[in-house]
Structures are given as C-alpha cells and as structure tokens.
Amino acid sequence: MSLLIIQPVLALAPNDAEYVYQTYLKQLGAESAWDISTGSRDVIVAVIDTGVDISHQDLVENIFVNYGEIPNDGRDNDNNGFIDDQYGWDAILGRGSGLANFTADDIHKLGPNHGTIVAGIIGAVGNNALGTTGVAWQTRLLPVRALTKNGDGSTKIIAQAIEYAIKMKADIINLSFVGAQTDSDLQSSLQHALEAGILVVTASGNDSVNLDNEPHFPICSSLQNGAGALLGVSAVDEFYARAPFASYGSNCVDLSALGVNLRSTRVKYVNQATGDIYLTIGGLDGTSVAAPLVAGVAALVKSALPQAKGKKISEILINTAKNIDDFNTTLAPGSMGKLLRLDAALAEAKRLENIIKQTQNFFVYKKISAPVAFSGYNIAGQLTAMVDLNGLKDLAGSETDFIRDDLAQAQIFNTGRLAVSQSGSLAFSFYPYGQNYKKPFKIILLKSGGNTVVGVMPASGGGDDMQIWSVDGRKLGQFRIFSDKIRSGYSLSKIDWNNDGMDEILVSRSDRKSDIRLYDQRGHLLKKWDNPFGGGLTLAALSDQEQPVIMAAENNSYRAQVAILNPDKNFVVQFFGTLNTRGAKTEINLVSWQDRQFKNFSRVAVVYKNSREAGVKFYSPEGILRGFFSANRADKFIGTASQGGQLE
Questions:
Q1: Which helix (H) or strand (E) holds 122?
Q2: Of 16, 42, 49, 405, which residue is the catalytic one?
Q3: What pTM was estimated for this model as a whole?
Q4: pLDDT tens digit string along 178-236?
Q5: CA angle 208, 212, 215 (to 5 degrees)
Q6: Where is the signal peptide (predicted)?
C-alpha cells in the first residue's frame, strides 16, 4: 500500500475582527466579487484532510449536517452505506464524523490543525464580527478525515474519502496534499469524481520541484475527460513570483494563488491559566493554503452559476486568470499556470448567468400526443426547452419534479415503474410498490442533507402511506399521512421549513376537504393548518422568503381562487389570482420557483385549464401579476418549476 505524505503547508467588506490582516483577499479582488455573491448553502465543498473542528464558532454554521443520521448510535440510519456520518466521515476509522483528531500535547502542532485551517480559508463564516472570513461566506463544508494528525494517509483511504464525497453530492473537493506515488484506487476515485461533475482542487506541494520532471500525485494524475475537472494549484507571493517552496510545472499546474502569510481558523484552544480563547492562526505559507483559496473561489462561482459543473467552473477560473510568466522569468512559460482572480471569475459567472436567464424554464407540461416530451416555457410563453426522456412511449407524465438542474421522477404508465432522469438522460428506474402494482402514484423530489431523495405516495384510491426512496432505488422509510382510511387523492409540495437544507413535506387531499399538514422526512407531524376553502386543494410553497410561504388553491372548482397562508397563523392572509372561469369547473396546478433574473425573487405560477380555456399566470408572492400566456386545452399540464438552463 502506497502512502501519501502531507506537505505541511504551514512552514462588500466583512466586519470580521481579523479581516484587516487578510490583505490577500483584497488582492484577489474579493470585495467587488462579494457584491455579486458571498456564497450559497446549496454548494458543498468536501475538505479531505486531517479532520475539521466542527464546533469552531467561525465554522459551525457552514459545517455540512447529515440530518438523516443519528450520531453515535453505531447504525447507518440513512442507509447511505456509512455509519454515524452526521458531520462528514472519518475514513480512517471507517465510521463517525470527520472531526479533527488531536490531544492536548499536540493541539499547537500544525498537522492536527491542518484540516481546520483549510476549511477556514474556504468557508469561515463571513461578516459575523468574529475571527477571519472565508472566501465563501456561506457554503457547506463536508469534513472527511483521511489523513492522520501527522499527515500520513494511504491511497486506499484517500480513495474511499473521495468516493464518500461523491456519494454526498459534493460540488468541489479540496485535496491539500501530495505524494510521490499513485495507484489504481486513487486514479479510479478521481475518475469517478470527474464523471460526477465535481471540481477536484489539488495542491502542487512544497518540495520546490519541477513536476514535469518529477510528477507528484494527485495533482499530476492523468484522467479521462468528464463533466468535472482536476485543477492543479501552486503558490505565489504578494508580488506574483513563485513562493520559494512551491512545486511547479506546466503539465500539472493550472493556477497559482497567493500562498504566503495567510490567516485562517485553527482548532479552538483555551488557555487554562488566562482564560484566553484562540480561534485563528496566522503566518501560514504553502501550496496547501493556496489550493483552498481556489476551492473557495470555485464555490462562489458555483453559487453565482448553479448550473455549472466542475469542468465549466475550471474553465471560468482559468480563462479569467492572469498570465504571470513575466513575474517568473527563470521558469519555463506556463510553469506556474495563471494567477487566480476572484473578481474576474465572478464577473464571468454573472455574465453567463445572465445569458442562461434568457432561456430559463419556469414550468413544464406534457403534450398528450406521442412521442412523450417535457416542454419548458419562460414567463413570456416562449418555448425554451424540450426534453425527450430517452423516447419512453409509455410515460404517464402527470407527476414530475425538479431539483437544481435535474429533471426527475417520471412515472411510467401502466407499469408502476419510477424513472429518475438527470439532464434529460435516464439515470435510474425502479418499482417502489413492486412490479405487480399498476396504479398511479404521486412523487416529489426532496433535498436531504446533501442528497436527493424521492417521496412516493399512491394516487387516488391507492392508500395514504408516504415512502421515501433514494434515487437509486433504496427504500429509506415509510409513514402514514392520514389515518382515517379514506382512499383519496393527494396534493404534495415541499418546503425547507428550517432553512437547513432538508425539505419538509406538505400534503393535503386533492379531491375532498382536508387540513394542510407538514411532515419531516421521518414522518413526524410538525404543523397543521385549516383548509381555507371547502374542497380539495393543490399546494405550493416558497422557502426563500424571510418567512416561508404556503399557497393553496381550490382544485376543480368554479371559483378558481388561490390563497396565501402565513405558516404561523391559521387564516388566509391574502387572496390573489382569482381567475375568470367563465362558469366552467377549472383544474388548477400551482408552481413556485426562484426567479434569478430578479435577484432570487420568488414567483408563483397558476396553471389552469377548463373546457373553455387553458393558460398560465405568473405572480409575485404578494399577488402582483407578472405575466401570463394562453395554452392549448388539449395539453396535459404538469406545472413544475425548473431551476434553470443547462451548461455544457
């Protein structure tokens, strides 16, 4: 078994107390970039290192939490294949979270602090009047311990750590270490990461060697093309010259970042004699602190351009970087890559996002005529996308959902099979009720601690048990919604009630009067609200408000009214969107989404159809009409919001 030995790297303006010492962030162009984005909790950055101090006051808000796992009970509660991984994973022990491992004797050594230092450079909470600020003020840091406190780590363990990060849907992986050897385990895991669309950021090492002559790994790994990318990072000083310790080489190094005299979080230390608390450490040098600067910038690019996969993020970072060959004339051209520029990278991400906004899909529907296809429209009623799910001709199409840029949950007509598609390609299919079950069912995609899960429920007459499945067909749980044994139809929606990255489930009956209920993914009833109308409902929700908003419409009625409910009260706050039904019973579907064209303002679409007309009306949450268009009454509406266009 080969060993990778860590190279101790360590030899809008925020109000954070020590930001004044982080001059390298200003030199990157951070303050103008933060005007565009300070990050997003939708972006997950895996820190594969010596572990992270997850209770650190300047990191705790950004630490990834797997809410499907019960800590320290010795069980794999969420059935993801990992035991007790509530806060990342310890790949060395094979169980537990990715905590930093140290004793009182070595708390001041750089090795045990290494992962916490790296995590802080990427994503220490910004603008909280405490300690330092990370490049990304908001992100989710996924700690994965794969190196001992001395910096030792086998390629097998590191490969397992990378596979865990892939499993947990990391967008970016930071590897602030190098070694002289590689093997098939490491190569295979890196290839898997690229195929999953992940950006892997690697340090060049502190041995001051020409990597073109003496390749080190993982930075010099040779991999096949994928949606992701491997990005090699070296270090320069404040004058953009190669730091004396930094390894270089045009075949392996893509970017350089400032890597001298940085400041970051450290494992919390309390001086028992004086009571002083130490949360930060300064004077940090090395390629291992340069690499997380790149990972942090990548996280900001991803937050500003959510559609971008690792390959596109890498292209943006490289294409907007600055040539520094003139500052390194003793080296062959390109040996240091190009200089990372945060402001330019974010400006380019914003430019691309503005282009994508023009073709953003705000809702979809299926035409009854074959072949089956999902059609996407913008707010002006212009067709912007059409997805044919591999030509499946027996697709029912009445149930579909989106998370991020993935179209998913297509029910297969008369077979009871559930198909999950990503970016227009069939990813998985399975039978949630067994192959003998032929009745239709309701489906909904849910965010679940970095993963995506599928909620499944029988349609009218099929029962009232909600099942939770992984997208690759593993049943995670089951619970009962109503207990009155009335076989009914249901309306489902989702809402991130606590703004914690975990969607809760809204449900009501769609064909008769019932209350509106809110459940967590374990089946706990959290809240109930009275029905504002006299019949069955269709539901939608907005999670991105200061206070979550729930909407309800009376389905198949002559009034066709939509109500906004304040979740903390049991009465309708405001009616809006009353449609002229012309005396015809009207089928209603509600859609909610974030309209990034207007700085994440929420929008509500009322999709309606009766015997006389069909169409879509777009509203703000306050009930202001923002747009509308008519449609064909023969169309079968799905009315599900998409999160935007695709990037190649």
A1: helix 110-123
A2: 49
A3: 0.63
A4: 998 889 999 999 999 999 999 999 999 999 999 999 999 999 998 887 788 999 999 99
A5: 75
A6: none
